[in-house]
Amino acid sequence: MALPVSEPVSVDEPVKDILIPRRASMSGWKTFLLVMGPGLVVMLADTDVGSIITAAQSGVQWGYRLLLLQLILMPILYIVQELTVRLGIFTGKGHGELIREQFGPVWAWVSVTGLGIATVGALLTEFSGVAGVGELYGVPRAVSLSASAALLLFVVLTGAYRRVERVAILLGLFELAFFLVAYDAHPRAAELTGGITQMPLADGRYLYLVAANIGAVIMPWMIFYQQSAIADKKLQPRHYIHARWDTAIGSVITQAVMAAVLIATAATIGTKDIHASLNTIGDITQALVPALGPHIGRTVFGLGTIGAAMVAAIVVSLASAWGFGEVTGYRHSLEHHPLEAPWFYGIYAAAVIGGAVIVGLVPDLVALNIGVEVMNALMLPVVLGFLVLLAFRALPAERRPRGAYAWVVVCVSVFTAGLGVYGGITGANLF
Question: How many other C-beta atoms are found inside a 10 Å radius of the C-beta of residue 228?
Fold first, then answer.
């Protein structure tokens, strides 16, 4: 993926108290490893349980006809999230805080309300995934949900940002298990290359899953999280290039994971039952077992799902806590002790505990997974609208998108938001 050429950074820019040590002798790779995190974490979280179910349903119903979309979404995802990198580094402020400064408190509350809605939907899918994997092994829903909620609370309430980031990356790496699942499915090259070029855009049901896939890739909480995480990590202009590569690598990984899930289900379940009901992770794993066996189909797929669900739950809950903190003005940093920022940690804890309790009491909500992703797509005009406007208003003039790239940013945002809304509305009319 080609990255837009960056302008040189002035050596006279002020340096704040940062979390990353400044050493003249530090190599580029060492600096990258220290800067890496916000982009990779948010991208690993992007492939959450709802996204996995969406990709699986896409493979079953349409074979490889939605695979090309996963590849097209790689640069689109990078373009969108790279704007959060610019805003976080060159303003030092979170997304909600900038909206409040640039557009006033009313629009800030509109934005954070959308974040809250997306947070609820996302957490329901994450905890439903955890519960579904647990039930495959006879673990009661109450036990799996309580254990996962306790782990999420422990990680954040007892650690500073860097520690939380490391745990999130470790959990997210379990998603690499999906590549093994796709490989073991033995997709036929002729069918894959033949299906990838077919896009029945006149079919409303196809468009509905197009919208779901777009909503599964670009979500409100991703924008809030990455920009706030960069500000919380105190990245500076000199880290800009490394932060962009962090985002670019994450964009490729997350869409490769989506493609792997789609390929695995298209090559197995999709060849036998295109009408299979895959509303839960349990449905998917049980359907994969006859083709892949209990080890790959259940154990490996389950590990990938647990990793995806846990890293996403951390990111979603933190994004919500950061967003509300930035709009209301209360302390909102992982560098503060819980007693110093009670509202920030309180919002995080409420999101985690609330999500686990709702899934525990109303398990049928897990059937809304794809609907949650379509809802994300329907919110894209507001989400991307604020992001692009901030890029042209809040950034220093020399750091705003310029020339041809500015047109690329605007056109990609309009096209993505428009296609997501059109597909969601058109497909919904058929149900």
Answer: 28
